[in-house]
Amino acid sequence: MEHKVFIENFLSSRNPEQYIRDARNNGTLVKYFPRFAQLWGPEGDQDPFWHPEGNVFEHLCLVLRVLLGLESKANTVELRLTALFHDIAKPLTQHRWPCGGISNKGHAEAGARIFRDEYVKLIGIDERLAKRVFEMIFWHDFIHTKPQDASDEVVRIVLGLQTFDSLMLFEQVDVRATTRKREEQDLACGATEWLKLKDGI
After folding, report:
1. How many CB atoms neighbour CB 7 within 10 A?
2. Can you list the positions of beta strands (E) in 43-86?
3. Per-residue buried b or exposed e for 133-150, using 16+ beta carbons within 10 Å of the residue's own CB
4. Which domain holds residue 120?
């Protein structure tokens, strides 16, 4: 029940970024979701080129900040839940390269499974919402890939996703939630090409 109340308060907060920062500082975030402690530890470090803002927790907070300005255009609940849990598996998939780079291959798929298997029952959301958030977390990293660089089968799957519109919006939020230059953010955003392809069908 406490987990559900925590999430309900997060979803209704007028400032979700501050809510999560306060929850980290007062210990409730880790109390209810222990995995989050890794997001600001060494396991939460991110590649300095793609994420100069710092660790996974800082990126999460920036995602919530950017998202707040767009929530009037989309489903606030599914987007906030996706934002909160989308990178939860980055610590589990972190790989440090000799050059100093960091990768997290498979973190989206792993994070979607953690959300489904560990959190859905705890936070008390309905099955339809759970499936939509799972789908968005699962595909959020792949959408950075342009459709012309994906196989025909994967393109067909992505274009047919129930959450396609919300996923495209979230992808744009995700790439803006960094301190990189705007032109660098634009290059990393695959949503524009996916939307063009969808509109052309």
Report:
1. 21
2. none
3. bbbbbbbbbbbeeebeeb
4. 2-199
From the centroid of its chain, how far is CA 144?
12
Whole-prediction pTM: 0.93
CATH number at residue 161: 1.10.3210
Spatial CB neighbours of 57, under 8 Å, sequence gap ≥ 6: 24, 36, 39, 40, 44
**10-residue mean pLDDT series, the chain (201 residues):** 92 95 98 97 94 95 91 78 98 96 96 98 96 98 89 94 94 88 71 85 59
Closest CA to 136 of 173, 104, 102: 173
Give the tokens for residue 105. Answer: 């291959």
The Cα 100–Cα 84 span in angstroms is 27
Q: What is d(CA 172, CA 117) in angstroms, rounded to the nearest whole number?
A: 27
Q: How many domains does the chain have?
A: 1
